[in-house]
Design a protein that fits this description.
Blueprint lengths: L4 E9 L5 E10 L4 E5 L6 H8 L7 E6 L2 E2 L4 H6 L1 E4 L11 H11 L6 H10 L15 H13 L5 E5 L7 H16 L3 E5 L3 H7 L2 E6 L2 E7 H8 L1 E8 L15 E3 L5 E7 L7 H10 L4 E8 L2 H11 L2
Parallel strand pairs: 3-8, 3-9, 6-7, 7-8
Antiparallel strand pairs: 1-2, 1-4, 4-5, 9-10, 11-13, 11-14, 12-13
């Protein structure tokens, strides 16, 4: 399958000598939702800015739907919608005019029906004649999303789109994102809300200190790197673990009433059945047990720590 975004040996070094991006190779497929995760300063916004033609790369090449983002800027940029982190709007213009003007900037002919649909999808229709200066921060964020969708892009970048916004906007936006993805739009998301990536993404990339350290299908990533744990609530407190249980990865809580056993999801046998038998042989009774699996946030934190 031909990728809709192809990134080859892309890097960025500023005049100060700071290397914001180390050589990156990445392909993003049409219609997928790709989540790019990383701590502050990791290079997420720099990468997006290069793809969108806002920042020039130091080396490498980016193709957006077959168009070089440097040599064929206008054709590439028409394919892309960007919702940036920062709110940048003309405060004294109306919502309708702002979104309509943005469509015209990309050479699209007027299409009031499309603008109306976008505004309604984002619960902005009743604000269409309001000046932006009168809107709340959440409403301004909705306008930024509407501007990005005004020219019907096939690639949509969402750079921390729900940072600091209300729950209602998050709900509306993800409903809209699901609809866009269903229609074939490719979506690249950066977010600090890792639960959003866990729920929405098809694939996940992790970037740290300008290096793309991992790209993986979400389900495979969760399966390969996710850890499971068994938590046992004991009938009676333990002061120390019996010597016969020393070979197990067991952790005893401070009050002695809880045992935690961690095991690898990749192993065919968890060893739980043998552990429970050993506990019974040692006279350790439990009144409850539960299993849980590490979340994407746990995996992300571990990956970044490894590269610190």
């Amino acid at each position: 399958m031909q990728p809709i975004i192809s990134i080859q040996q892309l890097s960025k070094t500023y005049a100060s000598g700071f290397q914001a991006l180390k050589p990156i190779n990445l392909e993003i497929h049409k219609g997928e939702l790709f989540a790019l995760l990383g701590p502050n300063g990791a290079g997420k916004t720099t990468l997006i800015s290069i793809i969108c033609g806002i920042v020039n790369p130091s080396a490498g090449k980016v193709l957006a739907d077959g168009h070089d983002v440097v040599r064929d800027y206008r054709a590439a940029r028409m394919k892309i919608g960007l919702v940036p982190q920062e709110l940048t709007t003309d405060s004294f213009e109306t919502v309708w005019n702002t979104v309509s003007f943005s469509r015209g900037l990309f050479g699209r002919s007027a299409n009031p029906a499309h603008i109306e649909k976008v505004l309604k999808d984002l619960s902005l229709w009743n604000k269409k004649d309001n000046k932006l200066i009168t809107l709340s921060g959440g409403m301004k964020r909705r306008v930024m999303i509407a501007k990005a969708l005004s020219h019907e892009p096939q690639i949509l970048f969402l750079d921390e789109p729900t940072a600091g916004v209300d729950v209602e906007l998050r709900r509306d936006m993800w409903k809209m994102v699901r609809g866009l993805r269903a229609s074939g739009v490719t979506i690249i998301l950066t977010t600090h809300y890792i639960d959003e990536a866990e729920e929405m993404a098809d694939r996940i990339g992790v970037i740290n200190k300008g290096e793309l350290i991992l790209v993986e299908d979400k389900a495979e990533l969760m399966n390969k790197l996710g850890r499971k744990q068994l938590t046992l609530q004991l009938q009676h407190p333990l002061h120390v673990l019996p010597a016969g249980l020393g070979g197990y990865a067991l952790e005893l809580s401070a009050d002695g009433l809880q045992l935690v056993y961690r095991f690898d999801t990749q192993h065919e046998h968890s060893g739980i059945d043998v552990l429970l038998r050993r506990l019974a042989e040692a006279g350790i009774d439990f009144k409850d047990l539960k299993t849980s699996q590490s979340s994407l946030e746990d995996i992300f934190v571990d990956l970044v720590k490894e590269r610190a």
